[in-house]
Amino acid sequence: MCLGLPMTIVETDGISALCAYRGEQRPVSVLLLSNPPVGAKVLVYIDTAIRLLDEDEARLIANAIEGLSAALDGEDCDRFFADLIDREPQLPEHLRSD
Question: How far is CA 33 from CA 49, 85, 91, 92, 95, in A?
Fold first, then answer.
């Protein structure tokens, strides 16, 4: 299973970009995007940026990854899923059997 990472573009030449996440930097292809600027948040799968993210979505994805890591380490992970405290997670429309 691959996990998409919410990375921030540090520098780019329009074809590739140096992206950062949690103190790690790596080269990433940005050919699927239309000239993303430095500072943009992108969702990266297998060293390819597949779409732009807004700040809130990037934060939610990062929190989910941190929460999964905490859960796997046997730590409390509730703080990473604060957006779910007042609601139940919803299945995407195409997975519902209504």
Answer: 7, 34, 28, 25, 28
CA atoms within 13 A on the CB side of 23: 0
pTM value?
0.78
Domain range spanning residue 28?
A: 7-83
Tens digit of each residue's pLDDT (9 = 90 or more) over 45-91: 999 999 999 999 999 999 989 998 888 899 888 888 777 667 677 77
| Intra-chain end-to-end CA distance of the chain, in Å | 28
The CATH number given to whatever domain includes residue 76 is 2.30.30.140
Question: Which residue in 52, 46, 71, 70 sits closest to 6, CA to CA?
Answer: 52
Instruction: Flag whether 95 is in a domain.
Output: no
